[in-house]
Specification:
Shape: globular
Order of helices and strands: EEEEEEHEEEHHEE
Number of domains: 2
Helix content: 10-25%
Family: Belongs to the dynein light chain LC1-type family.
Protein name: Dynein axonemal light chain 1
CATH class of the largest domain: Alpha Beta
Structural class: alpha/beta
Keywords: Cell projection, Cytoplasm, Cytoskeleton, Dynein, Leucine-rich repeat, Microtubule, Motor protein, Repeat
Strand order of the largest sheet: 1-2-3-4-5-9-10-11
CATH superfamily of the largest domain: Ribonuclease Inhibitor
GO biological process, one term: outer dynein arm assembly
Largest sheet: 8 strands, mixed
Distance between the termini: 42 Å
CATH topology of the largest domain: Leucine-rich repeat, LRR (right-handed beta-alpha superhelix)
InterPro entries: Leu-rich_rpt, Leu-rich_rpt_4, LRR_dom_sf
């Protein structure tokens, strides 16, 4: 307010990046930003996403170059957020990303996502004719293995971490370069990173800056 003479409650864009001393917490003062559409908090020392409940108009959130380890707290803006810039943090798991119903752009390069992840799904019986090969045909390479225990319950292991991004109905632009998962596949000639990633998130229009992914 002192810099531009505008009340915080009226501002549509709020820039709090690279503060000295750095911002360490997203505290309750954010609740005054009721008209904010773009909030920039990059290049600080924030460890946790919090106190976004009052930002009912927020469309763009910039949190790059902080110390954030997970995506908890985003549910407060899940109905409005269209762009999340969260590169150069310490995020390994994508749990909680599904609440971003309107997210179109996700920039999360240089984080710590290192594998596709695993999930164990159990069913009392498989449809007629279904075995490990047919499951792989239906679900792709994400089906890792199939078990049949003594009481007749089938359990199959599927990759689920990166594939969580497919739960975002509007996601079209993703920057993921610099994560261990991307670096592993980019250096492996047998597995093309773009092919593997778009297989799991087929709605992407742009991946790591390349159109037509």
């Amino acid at each position: 307010e002192e810099k531009n003479g505008q009340k915080a409650s009226e501002a549509k864009e709020v820039k709090l990046y690279g503060q000295i001393p750095p911002v360490e917490k997203m505290d309750e003062s954010l609740s005054t930003l009721v008209n904010c559409e773009k909030l920039s908090l990059s290049t600080n020392c924030i460890e946790r996403i919090a106190n976004l409940n009052s930002l009912k108009n927020l469309r763009i959130l910039s949190l790059g170059r902080n110390n954030i380890k997970n995506l908890n707290g985003l549910e407060a803006v899940g109905d409005t957020l269209e762009e999340l810039w969260i590169s150069y943090n310490f995020i390994e798991k994508l749990r909680g990303i599904r609440v971003m119903k309107k997210l179109k752009v996700l920039y999360m390069s240089n984080n710590l996502v290192k594998d596709w992840g695993k999930a164990f799904l159990s069913v009392p019986q498989l449809p007629t004719g279904y075995g490990e090969s047919s499951l792989k045909e239906r679900f792709g390479a994400d089906v890792l293995s199939l078990f049949h225990n003594l009481v007749g319950v089938f359990t199959f292991v599927v990759a689920a971490e990166f594939a969580r991004l497919a739960e975002l109905p509007l996601l079209e632009d993703l920057v993921f370069v610099g994560n261990p998962l991307q670096e592993k596949y980019a250096s492996d000639q047998k597995n093309n990173w773009i092919e593997e990633a778009t297989k799991r998130v087929p709605k992407l229009k742009k991946l790591d800056g390349e159109c037509g992914a």
